[in-house]
Specification:
The chain is of the alpha+beta class and about 240 residues long. It has two helices and 13 strands.
């Protein structure tokens, strides 16, 4: 009888331990599922970013759901903090907070770049920038990365302003390099009726292919406006 009594106590204790272990495992799985769900929802707002939670989930009023059914609301703060609401299987609402980061690869200047300087791949390195807080968040809509500005495109652009060493490249800081600049020599082809006349001149402004440009003829010093073609040819129709 004594042996049976001891065996019963051991069995009951083992059942309690097993139940505790199963509950703990379920809690870990639930937390893991919540973290993954939160990251997926945040990623929808930060397309192409690598999202990570950077703080533990804290439940308001220490009320933690035993089982989470779905996330019903997410609200961002200005410092990468996050407030969210979930419901459990009984439709009861729980509220929690956490923090996150959202990193994207960005072009970072290797040295100071002057206004008007042509860009090249050698001027930049790729680094991750957190666009969930700080300057990254403020300029996340204009930060250039391989996804929206390929390395091959750099050779066709130039800086519009000074870009400091260590600064990320922004779309507002660059412009397409003009085909010709003010003071460049051009060939002017003048067409009037069925007649054509060619002469040389000087560009009075920067211009792009197939765009309008003002030119000054060398001999008569007459200013004309025409369309810029390849090889510095300006077509003028009178």
């Amino acid at each position: 009888m004594f042996i049976g009594w001891r065996f019963s106590i051991i069995l009951i204790s083992a059942l309690f331990v097993l139940d505790a272990l199963l509950n703990a495992h379920s809690g870990r799985a639930s937390q893991s599922d919540l973290h993954q769900a939160l990251k997926q929802e945040i990623a929808k707002r930060y397309y192409g970013a690598k999202v990570e939670l950077t703080a533990p989930v804290r439940w308001m009023k220490n009320a933690e759901p035993a089982e989470i059914n779905k996330i019903i609301e997410i609200t961002e703060g200005g410092r990468a903090d996050l407030r969210f609401r979930v419901i459990d299987k009984d439709e009861k609402v729980f509220e929690g907070t956490t923090a996150f980061s959202a990193a994207i690869p960005a072009w970072i200047a290797n040295r100071r770049i002057q206004p008007g300087e042509k860009l090249s791949r050698e001027l930049f390195s790729l680094q991750e920038v957190n666009v969930a807080s700080g300057m990254g968040r403020e300029y996340r809509g204009v930060i250039l990365s391989p996804g929206n500005f390929k390395a091959t495109e750099m050779n066709m652009t130039e800086s519009r302003q000074t870009i400091l060493e260590g600064q990320f490249l922004a779309s507002t800081a660059i412009q397409k390099s003009p085909a010709i600049r003010r003071g460049d020599s051009v060939t002017i082809r003048i067409e009037s009726g069925g007649l054509q006349l060619s002469t040389n001149g000087i560009a009075q402004e920067a211009a792009y292919l197939n765009g309008q440009v003002r030119v000054l003829t060398n001999k008569s010093k007459r200013e004309l406006t025409g369309s810029l073609r390849v090889n510095g040819l300006v077509e003028v129709r009178l």
